[in-house]
Amino acid sequence: MHLQFYGAAQTVTGSKHLVRIRDHSFLLDCGMFQGRMENIKEKNTTFPYEPKEVDYLLLSHAHIDHSGLIPYFVKRGFAGKIFATHATKDLVGILLVDSAKIQESDAEFMNKKLDRIGSTEPRIEPLYDTDDVDSALALFQGLAYGERHHIVDDVYVTFLDAGHILGSSLIVLEDEKEQKTLVFTGDLGRKGLPILKDPVQVDKADILITESTYGNRVHDTVENMEADVAKVVTEAVAAGGKVLIPAFSIGRTQEIIYLLHKLWNEGKIPAVPIFVDSPLSSNATEIFIRHPECYDKETFEAFLLQEKNPFHFSNITYIREVEDSIALNDRKEPCIIISSSGMCENGRVLHHLKKILPNHRNVVMTIGYMAEGTVGRRLIEGDKEVMIHGKMRQVQAKIMKMNSFSAHADKDELLAYAGSIHGLKQIFLVHGEAEQSKPLAEEMRKLPGSPTVTIAEPLMEVDV
Ligand SMILES: [Zn+2]
What we know:
The protein is α/β, with parallel strands linked by helices. The protein folds into 2 domains: about 1-215 and about 405-464, Metallo-beta-lactamase, Chain A (4-Layer Sandwich), CATH 3.60.15.10; about 225-405, Rossmann fold (3-Layer(aba) Sandwich), CATH 3.40.50.10890. The protein is built from 14 helices and 22 strands. The protein has a 7-stranded mixed sheet. Strands 7-8-9-10-11-20-21 form a 7-stranded mixed sheet, with helices on one face. Zinc ion (ZN) binds near residues 61, 63, 164 and 187. Zinc ion binds next to loops.
């Protein structure tokens, strides 16, 4: 086996790891680089291998930092099969269409601006359009969790539940000829998260490629999550304020809706309207409903067994139309608004932030990871003003950071997971900034069997 790292090496976006087994190549994820990093366009349009020479793509889950470049990869010549779980296949469809539309409208906006000032700069081209997304989706083959699928030669793939978002998986790649097993965590979830099943433990493997997003942090317990949310909402409403929850459309949005539903049923939050302001979230929520096979026992018993929809209740409204979103923006009364993007970089959440931030009665409740350089990161770091839509905005609202919400395993959970895999000889750390992955590497070297631990670097190649 030969590994070649490119994206998500010492950073958290652009996940892309190539595995070569004899004459065959398998790309684990094909994620987009995101945020405000340098040379981002070049990073997203340059590959260290020709897409047409890659034989198969194995997708761990639907998040754009893992899937967002697939249509571009196909446009550039990749024509192999793409394997993913059934739920990932459904989710990635709507996510990629959304990504194409965002790119198209961003390009249009920027090009108009260049036209207006008479610039001779080259006009911006989206990486792909919705037709490219259709071509990519035609290559997908859905697999069930736990199904050991023969890909080619003596190579098998199995997707196991990673407990991170709906459809998320750990990818087990086996080379029967060489008797070697590689496990890729994708993004590893946590035990006890709402809705989802816990990550499935792999018992035996030789090589592990593991994420390290929170390699140097221990989260608050999942149990604290409900009490924390109830407290923030109750206090904000009592003060006459609004609660804005920036959330990724997929995963985090459904988790928070589920939790608010539960708190509402138990009478632990006041009767305020809840708005989910994101067409993508609304579409994604429908896909969640289509995949009850992914739900944990608690969700099943509390809702599905009683034929109740976990994502619908009397005071929740899903907003798709722009006019309704604008109307919501002008609303004075207390309410809860869930909107994307999760890191406050684009989308409708920015319009809400402009209204919410200058008022000290309001609360912005962050429940997700905020990458370096994003507006979300500035808010949680306590900046007193942030740039939104080209203007600096005063931050008067309370910023409440919920640590218990993470859908990523923390340091202890990552160590426990790797430590329970027997026979592990080599570990590669990906998907983590240096201050997270370095301390984790130190700890992992002390695991039973003293595996070799390497922090993957961009373009690093290694025989395993
Ligand atoms: Zn993810």
